[in-house]
Amino acid sequence: MVDVRRVKLPGVGVLHTFVTDDGGKVGVITHRSGASDLISFADAEDGDGRKVSLRLDEDEAHTLAELLGGTRITESLSGLDQIPGLSIDWFHVDYDHHIAGQPLGSMTERGLPGVTVVAVVRGDSANPGPDSDFRVFPGDTLVVAGAPEKVAKAFNFYRTGEFKPRSGDAPPGG
């Protein structure tokens, strides 16, 4: 576990720092204004005292945090891909898709049991475990889990309103 030190900077914000395994020092100054500074110090024993500082606005800081934290999430999800018979895929809803503007509904009630919409991602927020009356809009991303062939059928339904694929329809992820 990494030991993170927290220091209040009066009138500025908060400084969080930690030392890396190779002796470098990393810090983040979170300003009261919402901006953040990412700082990296060279190994103090090198004697050259180099420092790199990068100013990030609030949106950039969130993006960096997601990228750095996303690695663990991606690693966890990639492990799920190795479970035989389970597919987790993302369906991006476009304006011309059948599901656009419609309630999500239930695939079981539509005759396709074994497929679950785990979440609907809208903008910067996720709606986990949405109810069947949750309305889907263009730009939403549906996170769908189930057997690969059932996920493919669900994707086709979201596109066309039919379970049977039309010629030329791409499979999930394609």
UniProtKB/TrEMBL annotation:
This is RCK C-terminal domain-containing protein. GO terms for molecular function: monoatomic cation transmembrane transporter activity. Pfam families: KhtT_N (PF25991), TrkA_C (PF02080). Transmembrane segments: none annotated. Residues 75-160 form the RCK C-terminal domain. The lineage of its organism: Bacteria, Bacillati, Actinomycetota, Actinomycetes, Micrococcales. One of its GO terms (biological process) is potassium ion transport.
